[in-house]
C-alpha cells in the first residue's frame, strides 16, 4: 500500500544553474517562520563544501551538507541515508519532527534523477512527497546559459515555479527576452522576479498535488501547453515514420548540445479504459522514458467516478491518486508531457495503437524490427 500523501512531509527541490542565487535565497528563507522545523539539505559539488558556511544558521532548522559528489550522479543513495540519519537524530534527541525538507541541488545537476530518487527510494517515498521544484534563473546570464547547458534547460523545464534573480543587473528588453525563452521551455511555470533572495517562503511552497487537490487544474496548468489529441480515424503511420517521430529532429532547437525541450498537453475526450491507459503508458515509458522529463495528468477512467491524478518522472510513476469528481468535470483526460525531443504525434500515435480495432501487434512488431529497443 502506498502511504496517503496527507501523512507525508513536503519536500521542495531548489535548483538553478551555477551562481543563479540559490544560496542567497536559502539564506533568506531559513529565517522565515514558515521554515521553522525545516530540514535543508545542501549539496556542494567539489572537494571543499563551502556552501554550508554561506547558509546562515538559524535556531529552528537543520542544515546538512552532502559533499561527497553530485546529488544527481553519484550519491543518490546518500540522499536517503542523510535524510534518514537526520530524522533519526532529531527523534532520538526528542526534537520537533521536521515539517518540511528543502533539497538544494548543485548548479550542474539535472534535477530529474533526484525527483526519481524521491519517488523510488523506499524510505524517502514513504515519508516525503514532492511539493514542488523551484528553479532560479540568473537574468544576466540566463539566455546564454540555457542555450549552452542542457542541465540548465532541464532545471527550467521540470520546475513548478521559475525565480528570476539579478533583474537589477539587466534592462527590460533583456528581461523580456529571458521570459519568452523560459515560456517556450516551460509554459506553465509562473515566473517571479526575486531580488537578492527576498521572497516569502509561502510563495515557494504548496505547489504539490496534495495541497492543490481542490485546484487540480491549477496543478496541471494544461491550458498553458500546445494541445494534442489522439489521431484515431487517420491512417496509422508506417513503422518507419514512427521511428522518425521518436527521433528528435524537428521542433525548437534550444541548445547547442542537442537538447530539444518540448512540452505539450495530450487530451483524450472519451473516458479511457484502465488496460488501455496501463498498456499505453507502459509502452511509452519503455520506449521513451529517458526522454520524458516529467508527466502530470488528470485522467477520467472508464467506469470510475473519481478521476485520477498521475505524476511521473522519466519512466517512474507515483501511485495514481483519486481526485474529487469536480477535478475533471468535463470528463476530458489531460496529460502534460515535458520531454526532451519527443514529438507530440508519437505520443498520440502510440495511444492509437491501443484503441479497439487497431492491429497493434503488427505495427509494434514491425516498429521494433526497426531497431528501437523497448
Ligand atoms: N545583483 C544581484 N546579485 C545577486 C542577486 N541574487 C544573488 N546575487 C549574487 O550572485 C552571486 C551568486 O549567488 P549564490 O547565492 O552564491 O548562487 P548559487 O546559485 O548558490 O551558486 P552556486 O553555489 O555556485 O551554484 C552572489 O554574489 C550573490 O550575492 C540579485 O538578485 N542581484
UniProtKB/TrEMBL annotation:
Catalysis: reaction(s): GTP + H2O = GDP + phosphate + H(+)
CDD domains: CobW-like
Originating organism: Billgrantia antri
Protein name stated in the entry: GTP-binding protein
Chain ranges of the CobW C-terminal domain: 261-355
Keyword set, alphabetical order: Chaperone, Hydrolase, Nucleotide-binding
Residue ranges crossing the lipid bilayer per the database entry: none
Cross-referenced SMART domains: CobW_C (SM00833)
Pfam family, one: CobW_C
Record family assignment: Belongs to the SIMIBI class G3E GTPase family. ZNG1 subfamily.
Summary of the function given for this chain in its UniProt record: Zinc chaperone that directly transfers zinc cofactor to target proteins, thereby activating them. Zinc is transferred from the CXCC motif in the GTPase domain to the zinc binding site in target proteins in a process requiring GTP hydrolysis.
